[in-house]
Amino acid sequence: MATVAAVTPPAKRRRTDGGKEIAIIxxxxxxxxxxxxSLVCSPTLLAAVCTRWRRLVxxxxxxPFPSLYALFVDSNSDPARxxxxxxxxxxxxxxxxxxxxxxxxxxxxxxRILYRHPSYISFNFPIQCVSAAGKLVLIAASxxxxxxxxxxxxxxxxxxxxxxxxxxxxxxxxxxxTGACGGVVYVASGLGSQFSPIVARSIEKLDLTDHDxxxxxxxxxxxxxxxxxxxxxxxxxxxxxLMVNVKGGAIKEGAIYDVVSDDWEAMPEExxxxxxxxxxxxxxETLYSVDERNGTVRIYNEEExxxxxxxxxxxxxxxxxxxxxxxxFAGKLCxxxxxxxxxxxxxxxxxxxxxxxxxxxxxxxxxxxxxxxxSRPDII
Length: 380
Description:
The chain is mostly beta strands. It has six helices and 28 strands. This is F-box domain-containing protein.
């Protein structure tokens, strides 16, 4: 009988310090050390132990930990300027610093995206960005001619720290509904250069889990065009997309798109009634809303079809007033408010704890997202 030799994992290249090879953990092969250290829940603790462990935390061999990503605009720009500069940044929870993302491709030119205009006082034009499958997707905006600024999305892969251009949209649009569910990005309704009932009722999807990503796929059209009035978040929840037609305290109509059956249904009135500000779904399972008028946080109970208030620490609701956008991850809500603050709410604590993340100097957040950390070859 033939003897099968035991297969030993190949030794990985040792980290060096001044030309001298050093082990991650003395006495253990590096691949074993990496497995052991990956079981530690806090990368911040690992990074504080020694330089070689800090290098490991940012290396491709270590499981990427979640980090906060944000789309910023230059808050120090001249109010008379049509287009303040757009910046993408990542907040590193280990170093507690904001790091810039690599520059995106030059097409489409981001400096042509319209965010403020001197003719529109106290109004910011939407820049729509979503996250899905570990990627950040810039998908819709207006240009200085008040037409769609994006003919195709720009996609940032946080693990490889690279940008790519996505396939072109069949109908470029702005003021649309954008969202993600199960690693798939959806774009619905909105306006082209001019209003078109065909565009206003259409919906397309792009599967980011498909490495080919050859084309957008057209889906069953919406029942009417009432969602083309504003830029809307389509919230992925339990294999469905939830959206309402207007923001703020106005009376809303809601729609639900079933991503499995490719069909539309009306949103229950009780669910739509709680849309008094931005809404996000934790792990696409639990809905949370933040009331933009009074800062109240609510959680949706599907069985009883009602929104229940989440108790927050004293003074927390004041910090959340003017909520504009929210994302949810690992028991926390990250909220962008109208005064340019980024507020984190730990909804797992009782009462919910609240704190702010300091912005980079001179920058104002538009939206925040949670994605895997970027690799840092500069410290490896």
